[in-house]
Write a structure and sequence with these properties.
Blueprint (H helix, E strand, L loop, with lengths): L5 E7 L16 E2 L2 E2 H12 L4 E6 L4 H8 L4 H5 L5 E2 L4 H12 L6 E6 L7 H14 L1 E7 L6 E2 L5 E3 L7 E3 L3 E4 H13 L8 H7 L5 E4 L10 H13 L3 E14 L3 E4 L2 E4 L3 E2 L7 H14 L4 H4 L13 H13 L3 E10 L9 H12 L6 E6 L5 H4 L3 E12 L1
Parallel strand pairs: 1-4, 1-6, 4-5, 7-12, 17-18
Antiparallel strand pairs: 2-3, 6-11, 7-10, 7-11, 8-9, 13-16, 13-19, 14-15, 17-19
Bound molecules: cytidine-5'-triphosphate (CTP) and the ligand C[C@](O)(CO)[C@H](O)COP(=O)(O)O.
Length: 395
């Protein structure tokens, strides 16, 4: 028998409300690139697809294009233009199925963008199960006892655990079966089915489970995201630490820029750019860990285009160099050395701004301050110094 043609639909139109970040979770930077880039790279490496589309929210085109730019050229070529999604996962899947219908696939695999660990073995089992049964999903045994409860937590029953499975994606189907089931559900306004096997069941089809993979978890909450990032980073082989140091003298003015935050003060800091001593030290700490020179090599002070430049440009460039090398920033730590202004009241705003510029979670950024007990230039209030450390993972 000839091998079946297999299409791929990846659903990525959700908002990630349970994770609660500024961006939908699939676009959050995770171990150096957006989460969805890991998912797509894994799927495209797993096999050749006869057609493949990613279903995205209409507001997310720029985020999606940025994520695609992190894929190897061959992987990008394997994907058709994205398909606009719907208000529910079910509606998004249906849109994806309609988008690949013209390719007349024998089989379709439907996968959540929020599951970044689909292996070739799992994909292989999914295709085989769809061929054998028509409708199938990966299932894993439960480690915990399960209770059925009412709205106030009263226990109503304890279903026998041995007969229960948690289901994952990729879910796999003979294409005409699942397209017809989704079309019928939409026509009959049944829109609350949370996975595609449920759609097939609703349509009267017999579905089967095949062996899932406990590592193929869905990123739903922030702890899931952190676990995914740790797992992806374990694949990166090298940890590097870099240091940065910078000093700027006070000049006339009424505010200083520190960590990308404007802090009212009796003076400004003098410099060719906006003189943000902390962002300069942080950028140098990253260049140092990369062994890619220093800020002056990338942004020569002799070049007039950097006169008065906002220093977030420098830190963003350094962070981008890490991503371009396939790495990730694990941690940034800055210590400001000054008698004044007081850093404490601005610390959280500074951490948040540095995290935003470098594309990190704020939990990976530390900002500290100290005086020199009135000794030296900082003690005499002649200027501000900053020491910084970066920790990177590189392939
Ligand atoms: N209208 C929707 C809702 C969800 N999804 C996708 O379905 C997958 C599984 O959904 P879930 O984990 O619930 O993601 P979100 O809907 O983004 O999360 P939340 O419910 O927390 O908002 C995700 O890849 C998500 O992007 C989708 O394509 N279209
Ligand atoms: C499809 C799914 O991932 C299977 O476990 C799950 O049902 C998605 O549910 P959600 O409500 O969209 O998180």
């Amino acid at each position: 028998m000839s091998s079946p043609s297999v299409a791929l639909v990846v659903v990525a139109a959700g908002r990630g409300s349970r994770l609660g970040a500024d961006l939908p979770k699939q676009y959050l930077p995770c171990a150096g690139k957006p989460l969805i880039a890991h998912t797509l790279e894994a799927l495209i490496a797993a096999r050749a697809w006869s057609a493949a589309t990613v279903v995205i929210h209409p507001d997310d085109h720029a985020l999606y294009e940025a994520a695609l730019s992190r894929l190897p050229e061959a992987a990008r070529r394997a994907l058709a233009p994205p398909t606009p999604g719907g208000a529910t996962r079910q509606a998004s899947v249906r849109a994806g199925l309609e988008a690949v219908a013209a390719a007349l696939p024998d089989i379709v695999l439907i996968h959540d963008a929020a599951r970044p660990f689909p292996t070739p073995a799992l994909v292989g089992r999914a295709v085989a199960a769809a061929e054998a049964h028509g409708a199938a999903a990966p299932g894993v045994k439960l480690a915990d006892t399960v209770k059925q409860v009412d709205a106030v937590g009263r226990v109503l029953g304890t279903p026998p655990r041995a007969a229960l499975r948690a289901v994952q994606t990729p879910q796999a189907f003979r294409f005409p079966l699942i397209l017809a089931a989704h079309r019928r559900a939409a026509a009959e306004q049944v829109g609350d089915l949370t996975d595609d096997v449920s759609v097939a069941e609703w349509a009267g089809e017999q579905a089967f489970l095949f062996e899932g993979d406990p590592d193929n978890f869905k990123v739903t909450t922030m702890p899931d995201f952190t676990a995914a990032e740790m797992r992806l980073m374990r694949g990166a082989s090298e940890t590097r630490v870099g240091q940065g140091f910078d000093v700027h003298a006070f000049a006339e003015g009424d505010a200083v820029w520190l960590c990308g935050v404007r802090v009212p003060h009796t003076h400004a800091l003098a410099g060719h750019s906006d003189a943000d001593v902390a962002l300069h030290a942080l950028a140098d700490a990253i260049y140092g860990a990369l062994a890619e020179g220093d800020i002056g090599a990338h942004f020569p002070p002799s070049d007039p285009q950097w006169k008065g430049a906002p220093s977030h440009v420098f830190l963003a460039h350094a962070a981008e160099r890490v991503r371009a090398r396939g790495g990730a920033i694990v941690h940034l730590d800055a210590t400001l050395v000054c008698e004044a202004p007081k850093v404490g009241p601005h610390r959280e705003a500074m951490r948040a701004r540095v995290a935003e510029i470098a594309g990190l979670d704020a939990g990976r950024v530390s900002v500290k301050a100290t005086t020199t007990e009135r000794l030296g230039f900082a003690g005499r209030r002649e200027g501000i110094a900053c020491l910084a450390t970066s920790t990177l993972r590189l392939p």
